[in-house]
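Q: I'm writing up a methods section and want to include an example of the input and output format. Could you take the sequence below and give the corresponding predicted structure tokens, formatted cleanly so I can copy it straight into the document?
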Amino acid sequence: MKKIAIIMGGYSSEYQISLKSGEIVYKHLDRSLYVPYRIHIFEEKWVFVDGQDNEYPINRHDFSVEVKGEPIVFDCVFNAIHGSPGEDGFIQGYLELLGIPHTSCGMYQAALTFNKRDCLSVLRPYGIKTAESYYLNSGDTIDEQSIFAKVGLPCFVKANKAGSSFGVSKVNKQEELQQAIDYAFEEDDELIIESFLEGTEVSVGVIRYKGEVIVLPITEIVSENDFFDYEAKYLGKSQEITPARISEEMAENVRAVAQKVYEVLKMEGFSRSEYIFKDGEPHLLEVNTVPGLTEESILPQQAAKAGISLQALFSNAIEEALNKKQ
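A: Here is the clean output for your methods example:
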């Protein structure tokens, strides 16, 4: 049976969500095909955690581990790290140098999509619609007049490289801008400030399943809060309605855009992209390459509506990774 390292944790504010995702993968992995190993990756340690919560250090030279004198070499890595280093290209580059198959996209795609500014800039020439945006780096002079002239009010201030809505604020009044900027800079030294798009928000999962790129059923996001923030995503402060309550024309349109984004970026593995309809047209907010995999997460909900169980979803990701290496 194939030995599968399920990597979880990470170096960012998303580490707790990642641990939950990793545990769900561990729980649902098909034991008739795979032997799963929980690997916790943190800045201070990389360790294999066994069933009794004993920890064994990972040898970072070859990503192996020794347990009671026996070396274990992994056939594939299942990447469940949200944020750095699992979603920003670092772990992909490391594993690719070692020649170890992994379930996420390539290093370049991970780095590009994790950088909201760069990703949107690459996709705009392909006709992908986005909000108006203004970029700000740590140390830049904050010209509020120029910002509001470009994006208007209300607007969103976002950390450029962060997920799970960490470092995101909605600004309704001019006097709220500085606090939102300070909050975003706690997560990243680059910001993107975007115009507010009023309309239906949807999330679209696109995966490679049994060798084919497929678009999963669309989820409509209805947040109880001012926007789809951390509480809405993880603490039950939202409705996630699958399939989305949109017209078939809107559904066809956003499916086509989501698949185009996946293919233009030469993605592999899982992806989940977020859109808001403005004047009937989907506008891309961001692309996630290691989406949440907990039972309440959006992509697993979509897979279930498509008749794909968590076991089948996770097994397919591993087989796609193994087949790619061959």
